[in-house]
Fold each of these.
Amino acid sequence: MSRRFLRGFGAAALLLFLLASFTPAVDLLGSLVIPDRPAERAEAIVVLGAGGIAPGGGLTDSSLRATMEGVNLFHEGWAPLLVLSGGGGPLLRTEAETRAKFARQSGVPPAALVIAGPVRTTREEALEVRALLEPRGVRKILLVVDGPGAVRAMAVFERVGFEAVPAPWSESVTIDAAPEERLTLLRSLAMEAIARLYYRVMGYV
Amino acid sequence: MSSLLLLLLPVATSGAVILIARRAGPGHRGLGDAVRLVLELAGISTLFLVANLALGVAIVLATRLLSSVFVSIYVLNDLSLVALSCLQGAVFFCWRRPPATGNVGGD
């Protein structure tokens, strides 16, 4: 491989790094990709798996934050049902069950809680939630999902028959984020692009 | 503002070192040469990162398709892969450079 090519490739990589870290380019990209819509009333709030269970058995930060958002939306009256999803952890209790415990302690009545079985991917979540909500006649759902994953999640849930509306993302994209936050957002957007490509190839969206 | 400060720090320390080195007299490689070498190193490291990610995605998908084991693609979303790729790049950069003339062993 020629030195000239390597230098050009390296210059492009360093330029991308500088643009991503020290300009609002990634923030602007995020604001274009991540849906920013006000919440809408729905028949159920669905909190998707987000980070799973921490090694100690509790929820991870991202999972706890998503659960709190779901609980808040429920208490604000956006939907009469709260569906909690999330796969297995290192211990016996799944993310969904751990979230349900938190939701009950936060005042959500057990009758309003729906706990999804162990799932591993967004598509499995969509199929599981459909199996749980279809008998109840639920069609319109409010999805609580991290910002970069919202578009794919909405497409997957709509593919299995729901009308999906994204809940507002609490970590709103700002143009004055710190360089490290921008790089984290860039990584999330890149991973999401790979996931979206995979879902498209597999015919899930 | 904080971003600008972070950007100014390496510029300031680099400027100071360049001034000190110039006062110390000749005997250094030209700055342009150094920048070209760093770009080459960055290019090799980035190529390794791309290759590592592509291989990682292939392994994750193959594992899912060919066995009942589930591996999340998000395991690849880890900064350590970037660090390892940079390390790989540095090693291969040194490896493909012509050996220095003179004594390498240091004795």
Amino acid sequence: MIEFALNYAWLVPLLPVLSFLTIVFLTRPWARLSSAVAIGAMLGSFLLASSLAWGVFTNPAFIEEPLHYSLRWLGMEGFTVNAGILIDPASAMMLFMVSLVALLVQIYSTGYMKGDPHYSLFFAYLSLFAASMLGLVISSNLLQMFIFWELVGLCSYLLIGFYTYKVSAREAAKKAFITTRIGDFGMLLGILFLQIQFNTLDLLELAAVIPNFAQLGVSLGLLTLIAILFFLGPVAKSGQFPLHVWLPDAMEGPTPVSALIHAATMVVAGVYLVGRMLFLFVEVPGSLTVVAFIGAFTALFAATIAVTQREIKRILAYSTVSQLGYMMLALGVGSLSASLFHLWTHAFFKALMFLAAGSVLHALHNKADVWEMGGLIRKMPITGWTFVVGGLAIAGIPPFAGFWSKDEILLVTWEYARHGHALGYLFFAFAALTAFLTAFYIWRLIFLVFFGPEKANDHVHESPLSMTLPLLVLAVLSGVAGLIGTPWTNLWSTWIHFGDAHSGEPAYLLMLLSVVLALAGIGLAFILYCKDQDKQAARSLAKKYPALYNLSYRKYYIDEAYTWFTRKIVDGGAKVIYLFDIYLVDGVVNGLAALTKGSGQGLKYLQTGKLQTYALIFFLAVLVLTVAFNLDSANALAHLGGVK
Amino acid sequence: MKQLQGCADMENSLELIAFFLLAGSLLTGALMVVTLKNLVNSVLSLIVVFFSLAGIFILLNADFLAAVQVLVYAGGVCIMLVFGVMLVQRKDMRESNPVNRRFLIAAPLTGALFLLIGLVAAKSPWVKEAGEVPENTIEHLAPILLRDYVIPFEAVAILLTVALTGVLLLVKEVKDNGRSS
Amino acid sequence: MNIDFSLLITEISLAILGLTVFTLGLILPAKSSQKGLGTFSLCGLLVILALTIASWGNQGETLGGMYLADYFTSFFKILSLTALILVILGSKNYVNSQIENHLEYYSTLIFATLGMIIMFSAGDFITLYLGLELMTISFIVLTSFRRTNGKSLEAGMKYLLLAGLSSAVLLYGLSLVYGAAGTVFIKEIAGNIAQGYFNPLLIVGLAMLIAGFGFKISAAPFHMWAPDVYEGAPTPVTAFLAVGSKAASFAVLIRVFLGAFLEMQEQWTMLIAFLAALSMLIGNLTAFAQTNIKRMLAFSSIAQAGYILVGLVAANEAGIKGVMFYSFIYVFATIGAFTVVSEVYNKTGSDDIADYAGLSQRAPLAAVVLLISMLSMAGIPPLAGFTGKYYLFITVVQDYLWLVYLGLILSMVSVYYYLRVVLVMFRDEPADPAPLKLGSTASLTLWLTLAATLFLGIYPWPLAKLANTVAIAFLAGL
């Protein structure tokens, strides 16, 4: 089985593709059958992925010598692109995590989406989404990866806009697609540059040649440019400041989709990609600092927004943005291990919290304002307690998963600072402050929604087993997933690392600090939102500092700024071009039509008039072309050795 | 002018004078085609153009081409006249070929193009490779058309078929419209 | 001088087929039996396509270099025939309901294809020009084929006048080149230029050639006719005009500019790059404001012409290869899109984008094909258009990086207006929810184009390799 899984790793993404095709073309009219097909295929993928992961993690040879096979895919004289598969511990981990979360989300969806008219289609999209991500994870080549990257974007577009009747969903889908494409554009340029400069896009080959860039005649400036361009893609995809705006809106999609996007598929793709390309970034220290700075800033920035949001999914969305910032920060300080570790634990507790939030919304019929909820834990014990587990994990209370990974990030940032990077202290401060805020806003959510007095929600009841089962599984994982990376038995960093495996002494002081910060956050939330039944203190705080409150609640007016920018600048530009078209081309014609209308032949002249305009422009172009050519031909004469 | 001098060493100035006359009438005729307000007059000045062109062909010893020019375009001009009179639904024929404001742009534009090409042509050296023109051009035509240039020849045949079917189709259209309206 | 007829097998059989269709149409009495003409042409074309593919290796030139048959022409012959077959297959419904004169319709389509083939197989300017005229006149007739539709007639009229204008300019250019280089044979021109036959008038001629061919490929600023003609012409004709005429003209452009004027490459690449940039700009930016889908596709096809011109800018093996590859995949995307447009028009009588609301519910296949075709044109991976653009733009990265930037930015912009249609199709509720039944042959066409676009996007290697071989052979044969 393990041997098979290793040799046929491409089956992992292929199975969901097949189920996508089957559902779309065959089983679409039968909802239950469609979901069974999707779940069956995903289960197959998961089993393959887990035996593959087992194979990789039991054989240390894979750490140094990744499994790599490829076939020729496209090419021309002088350059070829191979499509292939690259299996190393990092991709094996991702395969396992993505297929597991996707499987759980699909099982959850059988309950959540029950009765939806496009039930089958939803499962088809989910399968394709998972397949794209799995394909991205095992790609051995940047171009191939880019294709899956775009597919992920396309699927997210379809899924975010799944509730077609909601205007906000359509807008969100469009926003997600367009925002991420801005980043993709830069990334594609980066890929092109890499192809030109190094003549390969294969990850392993690039990893081998990029450290010797100076010998290949590539300047450091160019390499920096490539790295920054390349980084744009992950910035957009992983919701980093300033291209994070699409991510909170993406919660307009059905909740299982949000869970999938936020935990396992779309947003972590960026982190994963930067991790994969770390060999490029370490060559240009400036670019790493940029990565770290953007990561740290995003982490704090998003956390401050999450503090005041009212919609349950929006709080979680900003929390995702913030946590992704953590992961980027870890990459920026050069630790692949810590970043992917946090990615791994985050996947479980964030999927858990999203699915639990979905369960709450399901019960409350999509009333999303946390201020209108309360005391739900008595009515929905499984949802409530699993959410609490998630909350403990993200806040960083030992021994839950989030504690270990967050601690690792704090540790590597601290060490980075200690190794002479002055900015490192700033990053560390940002990260620590974020840790405090994270604990605060998540527990604010928990206290408001699950504890306190019950609001008038009579017929609230626990969700069906199909929805609670994934919650339970994820809760267990959120509890224990971090244990493979504790400072005492750090299996994680022996498997997944960049450069030397990290093996520091356990930093007890840091651990203490992080626990204190988490407890302080939880405590503050408890005082403001649980003990204080009327929430007087919280309200008066908001009243006392209206500017700060609004700044946070309105998300620093970033959306408004962008809207203004698109309205005024982009649409304005389009309008100018449109006006040009109308007035310069049509205007001449219309003016003429008005002139001749008196003769009662307006329409005919309109048409013939247009024709003459066309002919005029044609001749004008001929003239310009001839002149341009002749100006140019002066040196042509010289070039061809004069006249005969 | 250089073109003329370089092109063939004309032994007598008579031919030169003939060329100038023909070229002058050609250009004047062409200008009149565009500028005259009455369509019938325009078409008639087109005849002047065609005849002048035939004359230039004769000057170049291309007698067959000159004959074809006259024969073919005589028919063409007749048809244009008929169409001009029939299809232009104007009460007053004197305004059937109006000049509009675009003329103001078009005239300098085409003028500039003309000047440019003329200047370049005047500056250009010409490769003289003109062989002897045979006395009788017609008997050399058949092998050229039916052997050397058989593919273009056949292409022309098909082109004419297509054009004919197209014209028939459009004529049918006019009849239908006439009946329905 | 003997003619090697085996080299002319495609042309001769096309001519015979066209005439047979014509005669059959005249002989067959009842109007109903004329409906079989489409099927008959289709079968004949499939046989000819098979013959053409079978005679792939049969290369040579006949009539003393006036007529060429090499890999390059074979490639474009296959392309034109494939396009024609797909157009006829996809338009049977449309033709049955919108067009009365089947015999003229099918025979003219076949003759137009013959014209294209003669045009890009020509070894000299005379054959080239006559092939071009045969193609153009056929298209003029085809454009005005919807006899009762004012728009169609207007389009035909416009095309007639403007094509006449461009042909005149082209012919003038050809004669100037002849005058300056002393020969009409493309190969000999190259030789003469290399020997130093140089003349400023050659430059003027070259500019006029660019204008004439630029008109045919609808490159800006010679594009003005395209939106009107595309909008008015019967939709299958529009599709064939956008695909066949354009690809054939690109083939001729390569043949002439690389075949005859490679020596003067430095002079014309900059201008071609400029045209490419202008076409991309005007095509993509004007497409935004369109509400009629055919006009929008027309502007998008202007932009596509800009992308393809990029391959010509490179003027090397990779560039030729990119042009060939892109032309071929463009066939599938365009015919897919236009088949949907013609089917929708057939049922709803409208080309307005607004009337595509809820198409995904009324005709899912049509909506998916339109989506995939448009995304392919926008160059979103893993569709064929992405690979095509990649091949094109990578050729000029070194010398014309600004063109690459522009192309990338504009293809990103283009996603916006393509997505507008997609949004209408997939998000909006239809005014009339009744399912829109597609014709069986149209569905087949849609499936074929869909499969081709997906397959060539995911696994472009076979076609790319073929194009590569052809490009190498083409440059070696100069």
